[in-house]
Amino acid sequence: MIRQFELVERVKAYDPSADEDALNRAYVFAIKMHGSQLRASGDPYFSHPIEVAGILTNYRLDCASIITALLHDTIEDTHATLGDVEKMFGAEIARLVDGVTKLSRIELQQSDQSKQAENFRKLVLAMSEDIRVLLVKLADRVHNMRTLHYIDNPDKRRRIALETMEIYAPLAERIGMQELKFELEDLAFGELHPEARGSIMARLDFLREQGGDLVTRILTQLRQTLADAGVTATVSGREKTPYSIWRKMQTKNVGFEQLSDIMAFRVVVGSIEDCYRALGTIHSRYPMVPNRFKDYISTPKPNGYRSLHTGVFGPERHRIEVQIRTQEMHEVGELGVAAHWKYKQGGHTTDGRQYRWLRELLDILEHASNPEEFLEHTKLEMFQDQVFCFTPKGDLIALPRGSCPVDFAYAVHSEVGDACVGAKVNGRMLPLRTALNNGDQVEIITSKAQTPSPTWERFVVTGKARARIRRFVRMQARVQYLDLGRTILQKAFKTEGYDYTEKGLEAVLKVFKASGVDELCVSVGEGVLTGREVVAAVYPELKTPPKTDNVVPLKTRRPGKGRDHAVPIRGLIPGMAMHFAGCCHPLPGDRIVGIVVTGKGVTIHTIDCETLEQYVDSPERWLDLTWDSEVEGEAPVGRISVVVLNEPGSLGSLSTVIAKNMGNINNLKITNRTTEFFEMLIDIEVRDVKHLTNIIAALRATPAINSVERARN
Ligand code: MN
Questions:
Q1: How many A from CA of 685 to the centre of ligand 1?
Q2: What is the Å distance from ligand 1's center to 78 Cα?
Q3: Kindly report the CA angle at 531 between 528 and 535, in degrees rounded to 5?
Q4: Domain extents in the chain
Q5: Beta-sheet pairing, 592-597 with 622-627
Q6: Which of 87, 246, 392, 465 is deepest in the core (most CB within 10 A)?
């Protein structure tokens, strides 16, 4: 374990301006917080964060990252809170520690790993927000992998190794940290395929024995070749890692016997020109292996990696791989994104193009006003437009940003979406319209009695959810129009003194170009046809205009008249065959009348609504309605107009009175405001007209309220 002064010295060596005091406090805090906790290895737990910090000093990370590494497990595993960390180390450290803590809660599930791996990688990136969070997490993973063999439970070891292989090693590669990637991969490989790794190691031993010190001999010859050509270069050689050999065996479909290029050599030179000169020298001296040459200098990898790669039949006719690069390219290749701190501190002057991506990243880190902006600008983050959520079983569901539990439900399965009534997000019941966040665990509560609500369409984001809701609404509307149309026809026949029969309707289908009785009823329900038109077609002698006593002028229309063939209304849902008029806000208990509006079905008004005067001349549009005893669907909304004293607390007492009387304020609009009074319109969700009357009475009894009326246009 690195001792306190050692760690501080290491950081100070590359960053003389590091906050020594904060480093010391973080070191002590970690030891104090983890106290007597032990690792699986039997070591004190605090050795882990200290080792993680040590790993990061190899990458010369900034002081904040090192402190974050020291504190990274305190929130999750000790009684320390984020507030404690913020108080002691400031907002920046707290934000970073919080980021690492959140990342640590993500666990790759055993099921379907490969399918979900890419989503998990995106999730980790999206949640990292600050690149340093990811760097600390990667170092954490390196140390956990180094000590993986101490864990007894083989399933747990395997899960962690899989996660490392599928999530963290590719992430390390994506941000250009080759060295870290190789280590993670090789450690995971040893856990996942111990036999394969063992046999590769054995074969390497054998080759080593047979060839004597082959790497050294080849190195000497390569150096000589380059020196002869006048190229100044540092040449190093190594065997490839067992995992990269194994990968090659898999992808190239060659057995180990044929796999001879197990050695890789690196030529580091002073300039780009020297890279190509070294390449020319090597190619002219040794035969090139076809299809192995790659020029990542003229075309860098997306993560900024630059180098020349080639394969040749080198000294002693051994196939070798050679990478040629400048010193700067080398450091970027090994350290990736972490290299930039070094250059930030070292004050190296970097030549124009070579470090462009690094300098850009540095600029963004320093100037971006918020994590979103940073993410938007880095190639790292292409997933800002997505959120990643979990099912209770741990499956990952990727959704567009802004998605709500209904989107989630439909993404799980159409039937889950259709039946969803509520959602628990991270264990808490939340409204279905709540926007989901990265990492949320969403449990959808379903009911067989539920059907999709048209109101969902206002807040869903995904095309799938929208399409299903629309489809259902269309189907549902058709059923309602059909019912309504049939009722209207039955009434129309009765009014004219005939019996309603489907047979009679069948006879006139052609006249209306309808394909069947149902379609005819739907047309009537939608108001495209009137009941009387249909009756007149069935009984052609009924050519005379409607008898005057059929016209029921508004003034003479009395509540209760024609109640016997009134249509009960139920299941009112906005946008469907029947809906409330916006002008008079009918409530259950009000006397009501329906007006058939072409293409829109029936609009329900209170019987004294002024709008009805427009329809006095078209009695065929009128429809007697009664409230069904059990009105389902959306809560009805009553509108009241209130005058409130303009003084402190009066608005508060207004809403308190409404809430106490079980009303739910839906909308509130101030229509006039003077020094003495507020005038406002309030929409309240109520059960029925009696409920609204109670609320009005309670409001009138409130001192701060001057007057209350039910609002009618
Ligand atoms: Mn840890």
A1: 51
A2: 12
A3: 125
A4: 4-192, 212-340, 385-461, 471-633, 637-710
A5: antiparallel
A6: 465
Cα 234 from Cα 474, distance rounded (Å): 73
Catalytic residues: 76-77
**CA 102 / ligand 1 centre spacing (Å):** 12
Nearest to 451 by CA among 431, 474, 476, 433: 476
Cβ distance 345 to 15 under 8 Å? yes
- Distance CA(92)–CA(237), nearest Å, equals 42
| Cα dihedral 660→640→586→583 (10° resolution) | -150
Please give the distance, rounded to the nearest whole angstrom, from the Cα atom of residue 52 to the centre of ligand 1: 8
For the chain, how are helix, strand and coil distributed in percent, rounded to 5?
50, 15, 35
The CATH superfamily label for domain 385-461 reads: Beta-grasp domain (3.10.20.30)
Q: Which range (4-13, 62-71, 583-592, 638-647) has the least confidence?
A: 583-592
**What's the N-to-C CA distance of the chain in angstroms?**
78
Domain 4-192, architecture per CATH:
Orthogonal Bundle (1.10)
> How far is ligand 1, taken at its centre, from the CA of residue 49, in Å?
6
Cα of 73 vs centre of ligand 1, distance in Å, is 5
CA of 357 to the centre of ligand 1 (A): 30
Give how far Cα 475 sits from Cα of 39, 466, 468, 472, 576, Å. Answer: 60, 14, 11, 5, 10
For residues 563 and 626, the answer to whether their CB atoms sit within 8 Å is: yes
Q: Given 3.90.1640.30, 3.40.47.10, 3.30.70.260, 3.40.50.720, which CATH number is that of 637-710? A: 3.30.70.260
- Supply the CATH classification number for the domain 212-340: 3.30.460.10
Q: Which helix or strand (DSSP H or E) is residue 93 part of?
A: helix 82-104
Instruction: Indicate the residue type of 174.
Output: R
Q: Report the run of H or E that residue 525 belongs to, with start and end.
A: helix 517-526
CA 386 to ligand 1 centroid distance, Å: 27
Q: Per the structure block, which two tokens stand in for 690?
A: 């009696």
User: How close is the Cα of 284 to the center of ligand 1, in Å?
Assistant: 50
Residue bearing the bigger pLDDT, 82 or 674 = 82
- Round to whole Å and give the CA distance between 190 and 707: 80
The CA distance from 338 to 61, in Å, is 7
Residue 150 has pLDDT above 90, yes or no: yes
H/E element, 710: strand 705-710
Q: Quote the tokens at residue 50.
A: 């200290």
Q: pLDDT at position 154, please?
A: 92
| Core vs surface per residue 444-455: b (16+ CB within 10 A) or e | bebeeeeebbbe
Q: Cα-flanking dihedrals φ and ψ of residue 309, to 5°?
A: -115, 135
Residue 117 in 3-state DSSP? helix
Helix-helix angle 63-71:82-104, to 10 degrees: 80
| Two tokens, residue 178 | 């080759």
Distances (CA, A) of 90 to 79, 151, 285: 18, 35, 59
Q: Which residues pair with 508 in a beta bridge?
A: none
pLDDT digits 0-9 by tens, 340-365: 544 443 333 333 333 344 444 444 44
Report the Cα 223 to chain-centroid distance in Å. Answer: 53
| Cα Rg of the chain, angstroms | 38
Percent of the chain with pLDDT over 90: 22
- Name the one residue in this structure whose structure tokens are 């540092």: 234
Strands 263-269 and 319-326: parallel
C-alpha 39 – ligand 1 centre gap (Å):
10
In degrees, to the nearest 5, what angle opens at C-alpha 445 toward C-alphas 441 and 449?
Answer: 160
- Tell me which residue of 251, 280, 253, 249 sits closest to 267, measured CA to CA: 280
| Backbone φ, ψ for residue 668 (5° rounding) | -145, 130
